[in-house]
Amino acid sequence: MSPSRPIFKRELLAKTLANDLAGESLVDYSSGMFLAAPRRTGKSTFLNNDLIPECARRGWLPVYVDLWADREADPADLISAAIGNALGQYQSAFEKVAKKAGIDKINLLRTLSWDFSKPRLPQGTTLAQALGVLHEVAGKMVVLVIDEAQHALNTESGINAMFALKAARDQLNRGSDPDGLRLVFTGSSRDKLANLVLKSKQPFYGANITPFPLLGKEFVAFITQVWNQRLAATNQFKVEDLEYAFGLVGRRPEMLAKLLAEVSVGLGEAGNLGELLKTGALNHQAGVWSDYESAFNELSPLQQAVLEVMARRVIDKQPFSPFSEQTFTEINRRLELSQNLPNATAPNVQKALEVLREQELVWKANRGEYALEDSAMAEWLTRA
Fold first, then answer.
1. What is d(CA 250, CA 132) in angstroms, rounded to the nearest whole number?
2. What backbone torsions phi and psi does residue 115 show, to the nearest 5 degrees?
3. What is the pTM of this model?
4. What is d(CA 284, CA 261) in angstroms, rounded to the nearest whole number?
5. What distance, in Å, lies between the first and last C-alpha atoms of the chain?
6. If DSSP codes are grouped into helix, strand and coil, which group holds residue 236?
7. Residues 51 and 170 occupy one common structural domain
């Protein structure tokens, strides 16, 4: 018998978002649903254990692809492969359903010649055509879920895939027939996802980015019960202590588990968790802030100042324009405050950004926009 672990279900949130996708609420997500939250806060777990099953229960066809899972592969290939795999589920019904649906002869011939043993689309087949065929042969609305969608911006073909999905959306959601496609995108950075929606030349211009709800008190109560079942009745965690700890680790479940394990292996009684946290006896950020500090301390003063200005932009929800006079002024002000030479110029800032990218602290979109690799770092950099 395979081992299993307790999974916290977020069924109400899944139903709410599915209602939004269905057009049953005041929010219109027909142009695409964009959900942003920091990494390791439970997005992928929610998608696979809650939202995707809810879509299936409603008679939709969910197709999931994670662009973070294989960062060496081209994002466009991963998206194509996911759609190809979904089409493979309907191999036996292709000819019958395709003819009945009236798909044109060219698409039908392409459909019948596809090699279902290979998770890719035939050469010359667009994503719009593939999703159209999938919708027809499945007889269901397709819900394409792209996890960590911002990685599509790392390659030209990935960007083209985003525009192709927009074309597919427009093609399958027009006319008097029921809509055939919904697109769900998630990302660990609101700034990165913004590169898909904010400007008129971006594929999903005009769509809104929705903050993905972080795990709350119900999750804390669930985890408290799970852990206390493993402990003696006289050695129990308190819900209020776990809530405090969960906030300190950025509401990241894995980091909370590490912290609780640290207590459980002998640093103190479970009931003393709160006191241990307050006295600093535990690494209560589970390495997060200490990692930030270590990386930051290895940077030059100019690189640190650039990072601090970027963080302030994130907190203030403002775009970061690396080569504007205002940015140079702010960087130089920070350098002066730290008693360093104010040397912010276009070439110097460009070099600083390249180093920050090499250190995986800053991310650059294919078209030149910059953002923090981990938006949670902005909280650490701007803390009082």
1. 41
2. -90, 100
3. 0.78
4. 12
5. 51
6. coil
7. yes
